[in-house]
Structure formats: structure tokens, C-alpha cells
Amino acid sequence: MANEPRQPMPETRPLLERRKELRALDAALNALRDTVDGVPQAPRGGLLAFTGPGGMGKTALLTEARARARARGFTVLSGRGGEKEQELAFHLVRQVVQPALASMDEQELRTFLGGWYDIVSAALGLVATPSGHVPDPTGVRDGLDWVMTRLAVMKTPMVLLLDDLHWADVESLTWLASFAPRAVDLSLLIVVAFRPELPLEAAAFSTPSDDLGNRPFTLAPLSATAVARIVRDEVGEEAEDAFCEECWEATGGSPFEAVELSIRLGERNLRGTSQDLPAMRDLAAAVKGPGLIERLQGLGTTTVRFAYAAAVLGQAFSPELAARIAAIGSTAASEATEKLRAARILADGEGPGESLEFLHPLIATTIYRSISPSLREGMHNSAAEAVRAAGLGQAAAARHLLEVPCEGSTDAVTCLREAAREALHSGAPEAARRLLSRALQEPPLPEERPALLHELACATFLIKPTATVAHLREALADPGIDPELRASMVYRLTQALAHTDRMAEAATVAADEARRAGAHPRIRLRMQADHFVWSAFRTDEADSSGRSRALARLADRLAGRGLEERYILGLRAWDAMMCGEPRQKALAYAGEALRGGLSWTHENRGFEVPVSVALVFMYCDQPRRAEELFAKGMAECESKGWRGSHLALGQTLSGYIRYRRGCLAEAENLVREGLGIADRVEGAVPAQWFAIGILIQTLLARGRVVAARRLADKYHYGDAIPNAVIYPDPRTVYAELLLAEGRPEDAAPLLSGVGEWLEGRDWRNPAWCPWQLGLASALSRSAPDRAVRHARDAVKRARDFGAASAIGQALHTEAEVTGGEAGLDLHAQAVDHLERSPAAYELARALVGHGAALARAGRLHDAADRLYQGLEGAVHCGAEGLAARARRELSAAGLRPLPLRYGQTDTLTAQERKAAELTAGCHSPAVVAKELHLTEQGVRHLLSSVYRKIGTDAAGLAEALETFPRPRP
User: Fold this and answer.
1) Domain identity same for 209 and 105
2) What is the pLDDT of residue 803?
3) pLDDT band at 838 (very low <50, low <70, confident <90, very high)
């Protein structure tokens, strides 16, 4: 089948001197089949590109590609860039996809697109008036990937023809360039044609690629022999060689010009002799440029106006609209159409929707450029009115308004704003920015200006947050803004300041607005929450202790539990955790904050607080609860098409939770995925910082020090420190890398600096930043007494906080730097605490460390048990380096590693489930042991496995069991 707009071309003729290109086309088409000459093969798609100046025969090659694909029974989709349609976001995409979906009604479309409907329907032009949430560009591109992939699978094999790609809108180009590599695996052949002046967004199409099989073909001008063949096909074989040579020189070997000239020679009944040369030169000059315009002028005033109107509308146009713009009747328009066809200015036949098209884009461009500026502006203005009157949408009308002078028209402002709204809902913020900037110049009515500036600021937020700051500061200078609108503006301003690494300014703006909003308590509370957010996440806060006290007082006197109050409570939970207050207090505030829910995608709230609340559970040894909140929040983001920086950070921090649970391979995959998204998304630098640090930690835990160093060097990690608080702390992570490389003397100063910074803020929780543990390790040889002091203080702080994983990790470090018999007792305590936590990797590390210490003390039997357990844990965590160390320790002790005693699974056994339920019911280990006919030590081992599998400690066990799957009978 075929679904594509008609592509006009001169009469069917053999393609001369394009044998190489046609062979490549046939090879690419044959590769789409699953059999060739009865021999099975794996179908393979790819990319085929033709480039050359205008008139070089690119469209002819695409027409041939269409014919050959159809002859093979392939599905054909096509689209064409338009010089006048470049401002229309996703114009090319709509040409490609809409015909394939045209037979579906709305319900069928919703069924076909599924969860992607609300994300891509505006971009595909499937809804007249977009509403609801605004997807980000990454989400829309992901949705288009899904749509095109599904079409390619349903209608395989498929050929996608894209002509005049140099004139495609930026949004379509950006998506196509990112999607093209998928063609190889989809039995999809993408054939593109473009002039050399291809925009940067489409560089992938002009770049050779072995993966895509793409070697762009640059079309050469025809030789004198080929032009002679074209001429003689029209005027007869008796045409003289000298005459044909002159034709070649006059056309420069352009296939389009050669064909047009030969047709005109035939129409004039010229024979191709030397006497015909003057007439030939006149005819050649009339094919394009001034000669074409002279020929057009000879067709009469009415026809000229109709042609002008058509050129204003674009390569393909509605004859009714052109007639209205030209101010002529339908009869005159029909007559003008026939004259223009006879003059080979318009193509014969009709396109989709009974539209007309110019014979060649060169003709449309020449005519458009010949229109005087004043007349052209007037025609664009008329076109905007005609397009709106025809119900073709605000976006189609607005692109004409971009070409007319500003004159203070409220209708123009309304049209531009509505078109911008459509663009934003299509995931095209740059297009929205252009439209709103033009609306601002119109200008709008004074009372509408602040709202318009707010809309412009929202459009620029993802592409140029510095411009967002400027627009909002200008808008906020107006004293008469509605309080709710003002609050939304201030929120967006603080977000933009934070995104441009101006955290202090963001905090100051929110604080000033909180004081200003005294008459509006809800707004004041909201601004206070924003102030606390940006203060907490700036690295240079002057009085962290004062802010913590103020936040605590505010949280304790809150009467209600509205959204503003819940944000305050969420911030209090985070601050309590950071300051190392008892974890029960942090968990209590987090639980209160979640009563009623915290959305990740609220239009006028950031997702910093919901994310922080979720992470409180992770730091408090209840990572499963954190994972549940992250899964819900990320699903919310994805459903609204927020697949840029939000999803990048969500994936990354989900990986961090898995890392802290000890699922290192899964953690690495998630963080790499998050980093990949952050790398692709403009303005996602904070997400990059998070991802790089977490990935370095994960690689170090897996024993891949060289890979961690390569990653750090690639992103210059450690060279600079952002003004925003990042976790894990970048300097601490870099120090961990230095320690792994055997450079404690370089790590120690870094960690000391981190300690001074955190002490100045009263952030004392080693669960959040274990700088003391790193410093103790760095000083263990050069200053052992200092090392022990730091480790002991970290243990005390961890005990004050109360998370078993933090206590166990700190005890493990204290044991390592203490050594001797005292160290053995500390090792045992570390293992005991970590067995009561969900931190599988830290437990494995503590077990191996304890086993090694026992072996050094000559207690080989006890050492073997610890080392075997540690080895199993390391293998199951994916910690290859730790597993290798365990094997070395076993070998050094004269012990042989045993086969793994249990498989890796997250499912509870029936016995584990019973032990968990009894423990959750507040039964003591002795009671559980009696019930299960086990020793208390056996119960502890069972529960340790439970905590790791479920992802919680004893305090969260009862709640976690409510949703955790039961073992199969």
C-alpha cells in the first residue's frame, strides 16, 4: 500500500547518469525483503541520502524510489519540507504520519496510540485545540519513536521518502535525526533528499555511517552527452552537436533546466540548428530567475496575482485560499490555474485535498522573491485572515503574521498566543518562543503584557533559562498582577535561577516574596517552602542552622495539611535526616508529608520536595518504600511526556537506591540510562552531576576503578563544584576514586574540606555523606590516631541517627583503622548491624573484612564462614572486585572457595515469610526461633535475608509485607 502526498514531477523520463544511485536504491530495497531469489535473509533497513543543488534531480530519484518500492509491494510514506512552512512545528512529521492514521476515528486513534495519545496527539495534528499538560520535547520525540516504530512493524517492509529536507522544520529534523538509527532493525528504508545547506539538526543525514549503510550520494550535473539526449528526445535526432553543446552550457547540466528547456524547444518546433541558438538562449533564460518572472508577467495581471498568492501560501496550496488572497473570483482562479499549468509553472493534476503545487520549488522561490516587500506583507496579512476564516488553525495563520509589520492588533496577539500554546503542547518550545516574542512586539494591551511575558518565560525555560529570568523580572515589575499569577511567576523565576546555578538568588527571591505576600497566607507559606528548598540546596548558605531552626518551628506549628503544609513537612523530614536527627523523627515527618500525596508533575511546584521525601526513606533503611515512590513519580512524569531532566534524575536516583541496596548491576544500568537521557537533554546539567557521581560509586563498588577514572575524566568530574547541593557529594565521591587508586594523600585534603563545609551547616549524618569514613581510611597509615577519632565520631553520629546500615558501615571503617583484637569486636558489631539492614553490598564488604581480620588473627574456622558468606554476597551483588578479594583471602588462608550455596532471588521462602510476619508482629527472636524450630542465630540469618530481599529494616517490615508477594505454594 502507499500513504503519501503526491510529489509532482515532469513527465516520466529515464534517469540519465544516475546508474550508481539507482543500484544503491535497488540494493537497499532488496535488503528489506526476508528472501531474495528464494534465499532467506535477515531484513535490514537503513538510510539512503541524495544531495545536490536545486534542480539536480533529487525529487526524480525519490519518485523512482516510490515506483520501485510500490512495485515490490512495500508500504510507502513520504513528506516534503517547504521553504514557507519551516516555522510550522512538526509540519514534515504530520505529512508522513497523518495519511497512515487518516482512516481511524478518535477512539481508534486512542487505542492505537495508547498511553502516548496525550503526549503526541498535538504534535501529529490530531487535536484541534490541545489541552491538559505540556509534554517536554524529549517526551514527544520518544512518543514519535514509538508511533513510527509501530507503523513500521505493522506495515513492514516500509519505505520513508523525505524530500527537500533542508527546508524541514527544526522539530521534525531533530526527531528524524534521532530516530534514523532505528531504521536498521525495523525493515525500514529512509530515503532523503536535500540541498547542501542542510541545518545542523540534520547533520546525521549528510554524515557517512557504517551502521546505517549511509554514504550520501552527491548528484553531479549531467554531462553534455546526457543533455544532448534530453534535447534530441524532444526536437529530434537531427539536432546539431553544437546546438546541444550550447544547451548544456546554458543549463549548467541541471536536469530540471535541461528538461524544461527541451520541452520549450519542442513547443516552439525548433529543430536544433545553429539558427535556433538565439531562441534557445531566450527560452533557457525563461526557465528560472528574471526570465521566469518576465514569462509570468506575460500571462496577465490576474494570473500574476494568483501566482503571487500561491507563492505566499507555499509549495502546495489551496486554490480557494489563493483566490481569496489575490481577491479574484473562482472563475478567474480556474483560468489562472490553466495558464500557469500551460506555462509549466504549476504542476498538472491535484495533490491531497485538491491542492495545487508548483512544478518545482525553484519556481515557487523565484516568484516569491519577486514580490515587492509591501505587497508581500499585505498578502501575508490577507493569508493569515484567510487561513483563520477557513478554520485551518492558529498555527497556520500565525506563520503568516511572522512576516507582517507590527501594528498593535489584538487579534494578531491572540492568534500568536494561541499558536504558541499549540506549539508548547506539541513539545516545540522554540516555535512557541518565536511566536510569543512576535506577539510581544505587536504589542499586546498593557494589561495583557505580564501574562504574555509569563507565557514567554515558560516557553524559554527549557531552552534558555537566562531569558526566562529576564522576562519574569520584567513581568513582576508590574504592580497590578493577580496574586496567584504572581506566585506562579515567582515559582518559575526561582526554578530558572536554580537551573542557571544561581541558587542564592533563587532563595532570596522566594524569601522576599514570602514577606511581600503577608495578606495571602497560602501564598506566603508556598513562598516560604520555596525559600527553604533553594536555601537547603545551595552550597554557600550562610546560616544553615538558623534556617533549620526556623523550618522546625514552622513545621511544628502547622495546623492544616494542605499542599503547602505538606511541602513544609517534607522539607522538615529532609532537614532532620541531613542533620542526623533520630531517623524516627525524619520518617514521621515524611509520612505526614505524604498524606494526601506529593505530585512530581504539579505545574506550579517543583519535584525537589517529593524526591527528597522519597530519599528520606532510602537513607532511613527503607529503600523499598523509596522505590515505590520513585516508580509512582516516574510513571507520573512519563504519562505527561516529561521524559527529559525529570526522567533523567528519576532513573539516576532509582539507580542510587538500587546501589545502596547492593543491586550493583541493576544500579549501573539505571544510572547509565539516566546519564544517557541527561546527555541528550539541553539544560540537564544537574542530572548529569547526580548520575556521574552515582555511576562512579557503583563502578568502584564493582571493582572497576579504571572505568570509574575514565568516566570522571570524560566529564571533568572533580575539576569544579556546582553551586547546588548534589548527592552523593561530588568531592567525597572523587576522594573515594582517589582512595581506590591508592592516592590517600590526595583524598585527605578533599575530605577535610567537605567536613568543614558540612560541619558549618550542621549536616552531621554519615548516612548522607560518609566523609569521616573516607578521611579515616585516607589517614589510616599516615595518622592512625586521627583516623580512629574520625571513625569513632562517625559511629557516634550514625548511632544518633539510628539507621543500622549507617552504623554498620561506620563500625566497619572503625574496625579497619583500629585493627587488633579490638578491631575484631568492631568487625563483629558491624556485621551484626548490617545484617539488620537492607544494605547487601555493605554487608558483604563487612563480612569479607571481618573474615580477613579473623584469618590474620589465626582463627581460620571463623574466618572461613565469614569469607564464604561475604563471597556469596559479593557475587550476588555484582561486586566483582570484592568477590576477587574474598577469593584471595580464602586462598591466602589455605581455604578453597566453595560453590554458591543459594541462588540469587528476591522471593521470600515460606520460612523467611513466616519469620518476617512474626517479627513484624513484635515477637522476639526467641519466640520466632521457637516457632520455627531454629536457633536465634538462624533467625537472625533468615531476617537478614528478608531485609535485603524486601528492602527494609525491622521498623518498616510490617508495612512492606502488606504489598510484598507471598511465596508460591
Assistant:
1) yes
2) 98
3) very high
Looking at the DSSP bridge assignments, the partners of residue 162 are: 79, 192
d(CA 112, CA 122): 15
Which residue, of 321, 354, 371, is where some domain finishes? Answer: 371
Residues 417-452 as b/e (b if ≥16 CB within 10 A, e otherwise) read bbbbbbbbbbbbbbbbbbbbbbbbebebeeeebbbb
Query: Nearest 5°: phi and psi at 717?
Result: -70, 130
Say if residue 37 is in the same domain as residue 74.
Answer: yes
Q: Is residue 819 part of a domain?
A: no
Q: Are residues 66 and 172 in the same domain?
A: yes
Q: What three-state secondary structure class fits 317? A: strand
Q: What is the DSSP annotation of 668-681? A: HHHHHHHHHHHHHS
pLDDT in tens, 289-305: 889 999 999 999 999 99
Q: Which residue has the cell 521498623?
A: 955
Q: What is the pLDDT of residue 342?
A: 94
Higher pLDDT, 644 or 324: 324
Q: DSSP letters of 130-153?
A: --S----HHHHHHHHHHHHHHHHH
Pairing of strands 39-40, 46-51: unpaired
- Please tell me the total number of residues recorded for the chain in this structure: 969
Residue 349 and residue 360 share a domain: yes
Q: Are strands 75-80 and 316-317 parallel, antiparallel or unpaired?
A: unpaired
Is-cis flag, bond preceding 483, omega within 30? Answer: no
| Residue 4: per-residue pLDDT | 46
Give the model's pLDDT for residue 353.
64
Here the CATH number for the domain that contains residue 935 is 1.10.10
Q: Examine the domain organization and report whether 193 and 239 are in the same domain.
A: no
- In contact, 879 and 916? CB cutoff 8 Å: no
The count of domains in the chain is 5
For residue 6, pLDDT over 50 is answered with no
pLDDT attached to residue 208 = 76
Whether pLDDT at 9 is above 50: no
Written as nine digits, the cell of 472 is 519574569
- Are both 80 and 101 inside the same structural domain? yes
Residue 197: its pLDDT value, please?
86
Of the two residues 913 and 901, the one the predictor is more confident about is: 913
pTM score, whole prediction = 0.88
Residue 157, preceding peptide bond in cis (omega within 30° of 0)? yes
Asked if residue 124 is part of any domain, the answer here is yes
Three-state DSSP class for 477? coil
Cell of 863: 574466618
Q: Is 899 exposed, middle or buried (0-12, 13-18, 19+ CB in 10 A)?
A: exposed
Average confidence score pLDDT of the chain: 93
Are both 126 and 77 inside the same structural domain?
Answer: yes
What is the domain extent for residue 320? Answer: 290-371
Query: Which residues fall within 8 angstroms of residue 33, CB to CB, at 6 or more apart?
Result: 41, 43, 72, 157
- Among 589, 613, 629, which residue terminates a domain? 629
Q: Does pLDDT of 683 surpass 70? A: no
Q: Is the pLDDT of residue 821 over 50?
A: yes
DSSP string, 247-309: HHHHHTT-HHHHHHHHHHHHHTT----GGGHHHHHHHHHTSSHHHHHHHHHTT-HHHHHHHHH
Q: Region 220-244: what's the mean pLDDT?
A: 96
Sign of the four-CA dihedral 270, 272, 278, 282: positive
The CATH number that applies at residue 331 is 1.10.10.10
Q: How far apart, in whole angstroms, are the C-alpha atoms of residue 611 and residue 599?
A: 10
933 in a structural domain: yes
Q: What is the CATH number of the domain that holds 39?
A: 3.40.50.300
Distance between CA 368 and CA 611 in Å, rounded? 54
Q: What is the mean pLDDT of residues 558-575?
A: 94
Q: State which amino acid sits at residue 207.
A: T
Do 188 and 299 fall into the same domain? no
Amino acid at site 570: G
Residue whose grid cell is 532510602: 618
* Maximum alpha-carbon separation in the chain: 117
